[in-house]
Design a protein that fits this description.
Elements: H1 7-14, H2 17-27, H3 33-40, H4 44-57, E1 60-63, E2 67-70, H5 74-94, H6 114-122, E3 123-124, E4 127-128, H7 135-146, E5 154-156, H8 157-165, H9 171-180, E6 184-189, E7 197-202
Antiparallel strand pairs: 1-2, 3-4, 5-7, 6-7
Helix pairs in contact: 2-3, 2-4, 3-4, 6-7, 8-9
């Protein structure tokens, strides 16, 4: 995902408030992680994760050692891709879309896209064959798995494990990757007189627009 994002990826990247605040801070001149954290009003750990996702998504370039800057061409590139692929996307939708929509799972990217090629290699009949070693390909798989979770809904850990377990028996591995790469977040919640439970909610990934 180091290329400039497309329209759907752009919407997904900026749908999470922490990433939007981090991007605004860099746009206004913050270049280092401490500066971004201070201007955005974020904890350094949260700011670092937001910056990492923005770099991986193609809206920023740089790193913590050398500083960050906005990719000025990213929004223009997204607009051009929207104009170029609009009619093609309608045709692909009429033919049934990408490879991931079977069995009530995530819809998946458009057929013939690089993301669809990655999923074809690593996901078969709704099962994850292996987690890609390359970070870019792993993000494609995680983006696909994030589609299992509805934005705005909170999931207890047992339900997260059940959903991910349908794709791979090592649901703890998938859960950890989704949290580490910013697709899910989690917190401990406790009801009066009850033990605390871990609650997860979606914070990233491609959002399908009707």
């Amino acid at each position: 995902m180091n290329d400039a994002p497309g329209p759907r990826e752009l919407v997904a990247l900026l749908a999470e408030p922490d990433r939007l605040r981090a991007l605004a801070a860099v746009t206004l001149g913050a270049a280092t992680l401490p500066d971004v954290a201070e201007r955005a009003g974020l904890e350094p750990r949260v700011a670092a994760r937001a910056l990492s996702r923005l770099v991986a998504g193609g809206l920023l370039e740089g790193d913590a050692a050398n500083g960050y800057q906005v990719r000025a061409d990213a929004f223009k590139a997204a607009a051009r891709r929207a104009a170029a692929t609009g009619s093609r996307g309608e045709a692909e939708g009429a033919e049934g879309g990408g490879p991931g929509g079977e069995g009530g799972g995530p819809a998946g990217p458009a057929a013939g896209s690089p993301e669809a090629d990655v999923l074809r290699r690593f996901v078969h009949n709704g099962r994850l064959l292996a987690m890609p070693a390359a970070h870019g390909k792993r993000l494609v798989v995680l983006d696909h798995l994030a589609g299992l979770f509805e934005p705005g809904r909170r999931y207890p850990e047992r339900e997260v494990n059940e959903l991910l377990g349908r794709y791979h028996p090592d649901y703890a591995m998938l859960r950890r990757y989704l949290v580490d790469d910013g697709f899910l977040d989690r917190a401990d919640e406790q009801a009066p007189g009850a033990p605390s439970v871990k609650i997860y909610w979606r914070t990233g990934g491609t959002i399908e627009l009707d």
